[in-house]
């Protein structure tokens, strides 16, 4: 019986917490925790957790788990979370660190207890998407009615509860930022109960949901934006940890980062991101909110380089800022937009940042200037612009006194009479404005008047406070129509707001989370759309339909919705590529002397992606001829069905780094066996010589096509060294 819930732990744990503050050495701290456990273990009556209902839905397991049967003999960490909560997301790296240190064989199990805030978060499929998006690899139970939450009298997200091997409650940790205590408490608890022979090393039936998924060209794309010309799209392919630059027809121009998460500056082929969200493009510069790295990154499309311009790669707690960008810690930036300060000498001299992690709007000075109600600032400075840092829905004439609740989307209306930032304030379910004349923060639609009520959500068209949204993540301004479009994410809709009248109405979506391209906007469906953008001429809107892993196109003139022709697993094809990638007859012929390397057979599945990693080495003192088109290309004699819709060729600009050649098998394969040829044709010159050579190499890759899933990505190294003539 959990008499008093977590409150029963409070007296003893508070005493321990005070003693730990006075302890000087790790040994002292360990001894204090050990003595605390002796005291808790010798209690006449355990504080036990009630059994979870047998009818609850489980994820990442082979079936339902009993706390008192299956987890008997385990130290269990219960993580009470809800997937919209930024503080819950901040806790995940701590849990990953714990999982890395101890497994179920060591006696430790983490169980996520999903206790929803929003109605949309009670739906199992939406929790599945969140588990994939945030790479959660431990069991998760959908406690949709918050039964265990109420039984234990949990009061806020996130809360961790550490249980002993009898299901006995030992510790609770409320909020984020307790990594050191979490590791200390769990390690000493494991030691304590191992010494008493109460820890079992049996395996728990873990079955990761992600292992059953087919590969997807995009994975949880969070945001999308257009360049000034309207000809290039930039997509945050968040789940693949990369940024894509495409033409409007879907042809890939650049792939930057991915497919794995990381934190690395450098050339496009070596750069790495971690769940990037917001993106802003100005000419050939892209700014990226690299959310889970707690960084702002800069992509230079001309130099093909990625650099860091703000953040230190560790979650910051500073709510003021003021240091140079690369020295200033920041916290979970979620969106970015380029704009002007009030006294800048140059246009677009500020990068506005939705800093979801500290519930604020920040500014990175791209040039010197002055912010509303602020002093002169030097280029490179990164600081808070609006928001106290308290999580609330508070409007105020003074930007620092206003309060936001996980701001996740930004859009700029620089023209009069607006001259403001629009903010999608997700946890208050509102859209707010910040004046760029005087910094005043005002309400536009959604929410309610009480600044502390973050539960005023719904799906109601109407004006001002009578309109209701549910966790909106994106906004975009239509300059032509003077309208604001909102990604009302948890209502699975796109809404339109007239800022003059404060009217908010459904533009597209039925409210159902699914993937239907209907005959009209209101008969089509979305699944947690996270971002959107509109062409300058106001015709096409692009929507990052996040949980459908798609970018959808809405024609605002004809009211017709469609999917763009987008195959992001295609290659990086430069504008000036001399090859016709869709015409096999125009591919170059290799010299007869070109070697043919036979590769081992590869077992793959329909729809699977193969990444060929091409690394070629020239003879000493040689360099590529910049005037001649060195290239790679793919052929499949007798199996041309393999090539439908593929990118069949690409330019080789630099042999000092590997060229990544993606290839996605058709979802419907016509033969259980096939042969693919990956060929390269290089033109290079010896330094100090006017002679130019053409050399070729061919790699033959036999494919065995299985009917079962082989995993989402197969990588094949293609290596060859050209010898001196």
From TrEMBL:
- Tell me which Pfam families the record gives: NHL, Thioredoxin_8
- NHL repeats: from-to residues: 521-557
Q: What is its main location?
A: cytoplasm
Keywords for this protein: Cytoplasm, Repeat
Spell out the subcellular localization from the entry.
Cytoplasm, Cytosol
Q: Which PROSITE patterns match?
A: NHL, THIOREDOXIN_2
Q: Which residues form the Thioredoxin domain?
A: 38-191
Q: Name one GO cellular component term.
A: cytosol
Organism domain of life: Eukaryota
Q: What does this protein do?
A: Required for normal embryonic development.
Q: How does it assemble?
A: Monomer.
Protein name (Swiss-Prot/TrEMBL):
NHL repeat-containing protein 2
Species name = Glareola pratincola
């Amino acid at each position: 019986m959990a008499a008093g819930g977590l409150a029963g732990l409070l007296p003893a744990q508070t005493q321990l917490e005070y003693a730990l503050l006075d302890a000087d050495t790790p040994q002292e701290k360990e001894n204090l925790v050990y003595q605390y456990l002796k005291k808790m273990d010798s209690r006449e009556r355990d504080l036990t957790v009630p059994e979870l209902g047998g009818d609850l839905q489980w994820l990442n397991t082979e079936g339902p788990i009993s706390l008192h049967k299956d987890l008997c003999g385990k130290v269990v960490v219960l993580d009470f979370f809800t997937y919209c909560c930024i503080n819950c997301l901040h806790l995940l790296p701590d849990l990953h660190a714990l999982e890395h240190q101890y497994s179920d064989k060591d006696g430790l199990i983490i169980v996520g207890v999903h206790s929803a805030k929003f109605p949309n978060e009670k739906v199992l499929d939406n929790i599945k998407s969140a588990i994939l998006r945030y790479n959660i690899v431990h069991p998760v139970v959908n406690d949709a009615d918050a039964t265990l939450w109420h039984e234990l009298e949990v009061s806020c997200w996130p809360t961790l509860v550490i249980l002993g091997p009898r299901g006995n409650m030992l510790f609770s940790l409320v909020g984020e930022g307790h990594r050191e205590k979490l590791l200390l408490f769990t390690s000493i608890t494991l030691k304590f109960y191992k010494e008493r022979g109460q820890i079992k090393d049996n395996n728990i039936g873990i079955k990761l949901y992600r292992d059953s998924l087919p590969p997807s060209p995009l994975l949880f794309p969070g945001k999308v934006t257009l360049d000034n010309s309207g000809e290039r799209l930039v997509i945050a392919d968040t789940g693949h940890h990369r940024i894509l630059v495409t033409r409007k027809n879907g042809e890939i121009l650049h792939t930057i980062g991915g497919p794995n998460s990381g934190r690395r500056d450098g050339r496009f082929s070596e750069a790495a991101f971690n769940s990037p969200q917001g993106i802003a493009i100005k000419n050939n510069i892209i700014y990226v909110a690299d959310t889970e790295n707690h960084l702002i990154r800069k992509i230079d499309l001309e130099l093909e380089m990625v650099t860091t311009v703000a953040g230190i790669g560790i979650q910051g707690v500073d709510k003021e800022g003021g240091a140079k960008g690369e020295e200033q810690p920041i916290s979970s930036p979620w969106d970015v937009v380029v704009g002007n300060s009030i006294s800048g000498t140059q246009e677009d001299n500020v990068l506005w940042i939705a800093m979801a992690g500290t519930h604020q709007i920040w500014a990175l000075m791209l040039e010197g200037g002055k912010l509303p109600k602020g002093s002169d600032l030097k280029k490179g400075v990164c600081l808070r612009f609006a928001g106290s840092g308290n999580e609330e829905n508070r409007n105020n004439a003074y930007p620092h006194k206003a309060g936001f609740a996980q701001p996740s989307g930004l859009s700029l209306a620089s023209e009069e009479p607006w001259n403001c930032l629009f903010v999608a304030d997700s946890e208050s379910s509102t859209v707010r404005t910040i004046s760029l004349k005087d910094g005043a923060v005002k309400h536009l639609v959604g929410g309610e008047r009480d600044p502390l009520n973050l539960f005023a959500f719904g799906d109601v068209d109407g004006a001002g406070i009578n309109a209701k949204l549910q966790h909106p993540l994106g906004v975009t301004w239509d300059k032509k129509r003077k309208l604001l479009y909102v990604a009302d994410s948890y209502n699975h809709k796109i809404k339109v707001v007239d800022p003059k009248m404060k009217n908010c109405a459904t533009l597209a979506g039925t409210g159902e989370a699914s993937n239907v391209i209907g005959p009209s906007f209101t008969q089509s469906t979305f699944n947690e759309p996270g971002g959107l953008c509109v062409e300058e001429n106001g015709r096409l809107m692009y929507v990052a339909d996040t949980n459908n892993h798609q970018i959808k196109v809405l024609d605002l003139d004809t009211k017709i919705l469609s999917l763009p022709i987008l195959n992001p697993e295609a290659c990086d094809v430069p504008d000036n590529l001399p090859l016709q990638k869709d015409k096999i007859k125009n591919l170059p012929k290799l010299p007869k002397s070109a070697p043919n390397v036979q590769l081992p057979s590869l077992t793959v599945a329909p729809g699977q992606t193969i990444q060929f990693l091409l690394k070629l080495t020239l003879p000493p003192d040689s360099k590529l001829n910049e005037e001649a088109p060195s290239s790679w290309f793919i052929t499949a004699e007798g199996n041309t069905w393999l090539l439908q819709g593929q990118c069949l060729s690409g330019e080789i600009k630099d042999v000092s780094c590997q060229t990544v050649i993606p290839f996605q098998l058709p979802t419907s394969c016509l033969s259980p066996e096939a042969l693919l040829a990956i060929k390269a044709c290089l033109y290079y010159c010896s330094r100090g010589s006017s002679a130019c050579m053409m050399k070729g190499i061919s790699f033959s890759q036999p494919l065995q096509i299985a009917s079962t899933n082989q995993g989402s990505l197969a990588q094949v190294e293609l290596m060859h060294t050209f010898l001196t003539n």
